[in-house]
Amino acid sequence: MTLVSPVEPWPVATPDVWFVYILRCGDLTLYTGIARDVQLRLQAHAAGRGARYTRSRGPFTLCKTRRCVSKSAALKLEYAIKQLSRAEKEHLLEGQRLGRYARSLAASA
Predict the structure, then answer these.
(1) How crowded is residue 83: how many other Cβ atoms within 10 Å of its Cβ?
(2) The whole model's pTM is what?
(3) Where are the domains of the chain?
(4) DSSP codes joined into one string, 42-107
(5) What CATH architecture applies to the domain 4-108?
(6) What is the chain's pLDDT, residue by residue, as a tens digit (109 residues)?
(7) How many of the other CB atoms lie within 10 Å of CB of 4?
């Protein structure tokens, strides 16, 4: 079984809130996705029912989560993160940089 180890308490799932999450896979690559319920989504990744990219890359470590006000906002942030280089993504994982990045994207929209 593939382990999923959170770095912080699980985000609370509510019907109108979406989360962007960043995983570090077993091969040290980074995967970014969105979900309403991060814990449930990580369980799907661990069971091999998540994204095709993650199916053979466990175990996973949850690196960061960011709550978004809508699915649209979560998709925009996910897309922006996926356009970054690996070095830029690693930089986002330090401290509160993901939050600052998300706020700067929202302000420029």
Answers:
(1) 9
(2) 0.84
(3) 4-108
(4) HHHHHTT-S-GGGTTS-SEEEEEEEEESSHHHHHHHHHHHHTS-HHHHHHHTSTTHHHHHHHHHHH
(5) 3-Layer(aba) Sandwich (3.40)
(6) 344 444 455 555 566 799 999 999 999 999 999 999 999 999 999 999 988 999 999 899 999 999 999 999 999 999 999 999 999 999 999 988 898 999 998 888 7
(7) 19
